[in-house]
Design a protein that fits this description.
By secondary structure, this protein is α+β, with helices and mostly antiparallel strands. It is built from nine helices and eleven strands. The chain is globular, with a radius of gyration of 18 Å. The protein binds 2-oxoglutaric acid and fe (ii) ion.
Length: 298
């Protein structure tokens, strides 16, 4: 097997794979500067597309001034071209095409957000799958997992990041009765490692130069949760990309984040030709999707 087919085989069997590095030295420096400015603007209220402490999933309300994430980092009003440049770079696009087993010209642009540490409150997300409700019965869960092959999500750490927990292999099989017990309420776990099969993901960020931008690519319907410590700096690029072969399967999960701004020409004008083509594929999905609602409840 070649190295890339190894990567895909591992991704398909575990539901995630670690890749390092996913950033060149230049893009690491550019992105770290852009990320710092973006986190600052979000925390001081200048950038209002954010994930609010207290809201685990979209829609994020405004009830808390503290934030655990920044939404829409490619938005033209943010004026940070480094984000779209990286999202459409050879390294990212080729890695995603390898993992999905598709050609570059099938890839659609999706979400690009950033996860940051809250500054005054610890926060956590419950065990969940991004697009399967916690009360789904076994057959519904199996059906949802069986069609979830057309996209991948990734976290690229700019600082060391050990917030995320996953259950390897759980992207393919419904929860066991015991796993259901740990993932059926809105409450985050007291100890994530109480979940049968759980592991903690530890991504090296800038501290070890040879690991710059360590990344986990994961199937977003793998069973996962996360804990956020307000004293641990976090700036983790959080993005996803899909293949047009998925048709509308990814529409709800992607469009629930509110992507009207991506349809505007002034966003398109910030992209190179590859980016424009990827965006065009997303817009086609959006046009055919209609009303999508939300994947999970808060
Ligand atoms: O913080 C993380 O790494 C995970 C975020 C997550 O699971 C989500 O936004 O659904
Ligand atoms: Fe999630």
């Amino acid at each position: 097997m070649t190295e890339t087919s190894n990567l895909k085989a591992l991704y398909d069997s575990q539901g995630y794979v670690l890749v390092s590095p996913l950033l060149s030295t230049t893009s690491f420096a550019e992105l770290q500067i852009a990320a710092g400015r973006t986190a600052y603007r979000t925390r001081n209220g200048q950038w209002q597309h954010r994930r609010t402490v207290g809201s685990q999933f979209p829609p994020y309300d405004e009830s808390n001034p503290d934030s655990w994430g920044v939404q829409h980092v490619m938005h033209p009003d943010l004026h940070e071209p480094a984000f779209a440049k990286w999202y459409t770079s050879d390294l990212v696009v080729n890695t995603v095409a390898t993992l999905l087993g598709c050609e570059e010209d099938e890839l659609q642009m999706e979400l690009f957000n950033m996860l940051i540490n809250p500054t005054s409150h610890n926060f956590a997300l419950r065990w969940h799958r991004d697009d399967v409700r916690e009360d789904a019965i076994e057959e519904e869960e199996r059906e949802a997992l069986d069609k979830w092959h057309y996209g991948t999500q990734w976290n690229t750490a700019l600082y060391r990041d050990s917030c995320l927990y996953v259950v390897p292999g759980s992207h393919k099989v419904p929860r066991t009765p015991e796993q259901r017990v740990h993932s059926s309420t809105p409450d985050p776990p007291a100890n994530p490692l109480d979940m049968p099969g759980a592991i903690r993901v530890d991504l090296k960020g800038k501290h070890l130069p040879s690991y710059t931008g360590e990344t986990i690519f994961y199937n977003s319907n793998i069973l996962h949760c996360a804990t956020y410590d307000s004293t641990q700096p976090r700036a983790t690029l959080h993005a996803c990309m899909g293949s047009v072969k998925g048709g509308s399967t990814r529409a709800r999960n992607i469009l629930q984040h509110g992507l009207d701004w991506m349809v505007e020409d002034r966003f398109k004008e910030t992209l190179d030709d590859r980016g424009k083509a990827m965006l065009e594929r997303l817009i086609r999905m959006k046009e055919s999707a209609g009303e999508v609602g939300y994947s999970l409840s808060n």
